[in-house]
């Protein structure tokens, strides 16, 4: 208070303060309009957004708030009648950034990757627009993922009007994710034909870049939910994301086991193999049905965890 009193002593009166519930409360009076206008003081007969910030005070020094202030949803006429105001600690543009990034990396990206990793042998004879179903679904989901990432990436720039200086490693990870995401469709567009002897280079490269991108994206999500401009409830949000990573790992393990068992069965003698192939009811349909169920469960679980985080973004 001393600092403010020294600066504005000519216009402030009836200054008092008290300590209540661990908070310092100040009371002061000042004229609504100021004749001797100073740049730092505003007339109080206009409409303003109200900010509510709280932070630590120690040994007479007031520290910067650790959290984004609570900002009223609309301007309020200061000298008007009292009104219950709604507010948010996160600007709508940053909420959109979080929503789009979580959608891309918790749903479309992970499901699209799983389809390419484990669902190529399924629906082998059906095609959509001349391409295999798994490929069309994979390509569609991944293009959607890259588009969502690109749009979401631009939003903090618009909000900050430049680079986010106080966001730590998070924006750097975001740059890596966007750059690697954009190399994937380029790599896919110039891939050699499936029977080419250099095709394995594309296969390993595409898989490797995709895996690294997904790992960096998950790291970026862990750091992003701790940003002051979109601070999700902690430690709850972190636990939800840990749950998501565990869920994904479980399904990867399940499908790898399924593949291992299926290959073992296919590796039996030619007569047995012929019997398996000629009797689809035994393994083919069952295997396909179980795999469809696994994919549905994966997508449902991902959606549930995503919705939990989106609902917390809505409430900030």
From TrEMBL:
GO terms for cellular component: membrane. Coiled coil: none annotated. The chain crosses the membrane at residues 99-119, 140-159, 202-224, 236-255, 293-314. Keywords: Electron transport, Membrane, Transmembrane, Transmembrane helix, Transport. It comes from the Eukaryota. Its main location: membrane. Residues 59-264 form the Cytochrome b561 domain. It is found in: Membrane. Its cofactor is heme b. InterPro entries: Cyt_b561/ferric_Rdtase_TM (IPR006593). Gene3D superfamilies: 1.20.120.1770. This is Cytochrome b561 domain-containing protein. It comes from Perca fluviatilis (European perch).
């Amino acid at each position: 208070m001393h600092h403010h009193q020294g600066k504005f002593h000519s216009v402030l009166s009836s200054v008092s303060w008290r300590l209540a519930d661990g908070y310092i409360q100040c009371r002061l009076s000042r004229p609504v309009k100021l004749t001797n206008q100073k740049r730092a003081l505003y007339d109080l007969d206009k409409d303003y957004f109200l900010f509510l910030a709280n932070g630590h005070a120690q040994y007479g020094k007031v520290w910067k708030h650790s959290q984004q202030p609570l900002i009223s949803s609309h301007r309020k006429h200061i000298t008007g009648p009292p009104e219950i105001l709604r507010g948010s600690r996160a600007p709508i543009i940053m909420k959109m950034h979080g929503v789009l990034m979580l959608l891309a990396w918790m749903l479309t990206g992970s499901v699209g990757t799983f389809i390419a990793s484990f669902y190529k042998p399924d629906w082998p004879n059906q095609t959509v627009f001349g391409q295999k179903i798994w490929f069309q679904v994979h390509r569609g989901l991944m293009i959607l993922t890259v588009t969502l990432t690109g749009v979401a990436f631009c939003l903090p720039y618009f909000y900050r009007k430049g680079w986010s200086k106080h966001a730590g490693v998070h924006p750097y990870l975001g740059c890596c994710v966007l750059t690697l995401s954009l190399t994937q469709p380029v790599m896919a567009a110039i891939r050699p034909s499936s029977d080419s002897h250099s095709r394995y280079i594309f296969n390993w490269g595409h898989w490797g870049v995709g895996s690294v991108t997904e790992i960096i994206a998950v790291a970026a999500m862990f750091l992003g939910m701790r940003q002051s401009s979109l601070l999700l409830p902690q430690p709850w949000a972190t636990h939800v994301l840990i749950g998501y990573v565990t869920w994904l790992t479980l399904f990867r393990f399940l499908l790898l086991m399924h593949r291992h068992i299926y290959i073992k069965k296919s590796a039996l003698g030619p007569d047995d193999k012929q019997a398996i192939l000629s009797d689809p009811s035994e393994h083919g349909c069952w295997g396909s049905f179980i795999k469809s169920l696994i994919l549905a469960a994966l997508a449902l679980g991902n959606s549930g965890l995503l919705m939990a985080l989106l609902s917390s973004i809505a409430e900030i």
